[in-house]
Amino acid sequence: MEIKRDSYLQQLIDFMWDGQVKVITGIRRCGKSFLLRTLFKKYLLENGVSDKQIITIELDLTRDIKYRDPLELSAYVRSRTEGKNEQFYLFIDEIQMSDTVKNPYNPQGKEITFYDALNDLRELDNLDVYVTGSNSKMLSSDILTEFRGRSDEIRVHPLSFAEYYSAVGGDREDAFENYAFYGGMPLIISRPNDKAKMSYLTSLFSEVYLKDIAERKSIEHGDVLEQILDILCSSIGSLTNPTRLRNTLASKTGINVSAVTVASYIKHLEDAFLFSESKRYDVKGKSYFEYPYKFYCEDVGLRNARIGFRQQEMTHIMENIIYNELIVRGFSVDIGVVFSREKNTNGSSVRIPREIDFVVTDGNKKAYIQSAFALPDEEKEAQELKPFSLTGDSFPKIIVRKDIRKRWYDESGILNIGLTDFLLDSTVI
């Protein structure tokens, strides 16, 4: 089954022949290779590029194992392209499989890596370079450092609900229930039954993600990493910080590690694209709070698998899905905080923080979003609307709800919109 990934494909098209190395990153198994070697290649062939102009190297295959040597890789590609009149496209898959080799002209000098090879090939006027790499050895920080600002990063995510629904069709709400349970890892759609889906998602953690992190970061306390992973999966959308997580570890498992160690392990999970951090933002003060913050899982299916498909609290799952959707749409996403003056039981005036689930920005575009599973009565509705009234501005305000189908604006201009309607309409904001 060919699943459309039009937004990512368009990014590749827009970056063609800009003189940069195009680096496709993202969590493993999210469809990076399919995007490059199937969808983008199909686009090129349909637009006059011949198959011989596309050089494909798959470093995870035995047939291409010698090109793991960056010197062999560079020599081979140059032999195919130098002095030719045609334009060529180089696709390198699984670049993290590349080796580091000694400089044959200076064995004691700096070793040669695939970054050196790609920076060299980037200089060829008739070659456009595209690579994919797994999260374990192909991270954004590495790219920016080693390519010295001469690369375009295309960050690929698991399927959005719109992409998922375009593949499965049928009733929207039924499709969403499956998406909220199994998530959007592309291979989920082709798994034949529930047991196969669960098994696949569970194995990704044990056989892929955790092994990748352990290999790259030389993890000493694998049990600590797994416990932190479990806590984060169980508490998506909850305010936390390394000290709180350290205390939770100690109380629940008896494991005693420093907050610094916890912070470093969280960073490993973020670098692996498994989690994203969202900071709290003072809307009126226009400043960020250092702590606490929230974490959201890159894919709710992976989150559900990690905790044994228990804890199916739709309020938190829904919030995570909305967060991921906003990231896919290219927004910066913060947790909004506004303050109100209210009287306590003693009659004294106190400053009370109120939370807006998401403050989203993209250039000059800005909006406030609340995620509400249901608003069954006036009290719950007033609770959700209160933070909007405290922002002191006229930016769009949206409540995404699971309990409605049709959208409408209330008397304050706040948009009430159903969850699946929001997820399938990228023009809402």
Descriptive overview:
The chain has 429 residues and is of the alpha/beta class. The strands form 3 sheets. An 8-stranded mixed β-sheet has the order 8-7-10-11-12-13-15-14. Strands 2-3-4-1-5 form a 5-stranded parallel β-sheet, with helices on both faces. α10 (242-253) crosses α11 (259-271). α14 links the parallel β12 and β13 (397-401). The chain is globular, with a radius of gyration of 24 Å. It has helices at residues 6-15, 32-46, 70-81, 114-121, 140-146, 161-168, 172-182, 194-217, 222-234, 242-253, 259-271, 300-306, 314-328, 378-389, 419-424, and strands at residues 21-25, 54-58, 88-93, 127-132, 151-155, 275-278, 280-282, 287-288, 294-297, 332-343, 349-362, 365-372, 397-401, 408-409, 415-418.
Q: Count the strands? A: 15
Going by helix content, strand content and strand pairing, the class is alpha/beta
Order of helices and strands: HEHEHEHEHEHHHHHHEEEEHHEEEHEEEH
Strand content: 15-25%
Total helical elements:
15
Overall 3D shape: globular
User: What is the terminal-to-terminal distance?
Assistant: 31 Å
Radius of gyration: 24 Å
Q: List the strand order in the largest sheet.
A: 8-7-10-11-12-13-15-14
Mean pLDDT: 93
Write the layout of secondary structure elements.
Layout (H helix, E strand, L loop, with lengths): L5 H10 L5 E5 L6 H15 L7 E5 L11 H12 L6 E6 L20 H8 L5 E6 L7 H7 L4 E5 L5 H8 L3 H11 L11 H24 L4 H13 L7 H12 L5 H13 L3 E4 L1 E3 L4 E2 L5 E4 L2 H7 L7 H15 L3 E12 L5 E14 L2 E8 L5 H12 L7 E5 L6 E2 L5 E4 H6 L5
Parallel strand pairs: 1-4, 1-5, 2-3, 3-4, 7-10, 12-13, 13-15
Antiparallel strand pairs: 6-9, 7-8, 10-11, 11-12, 14-15
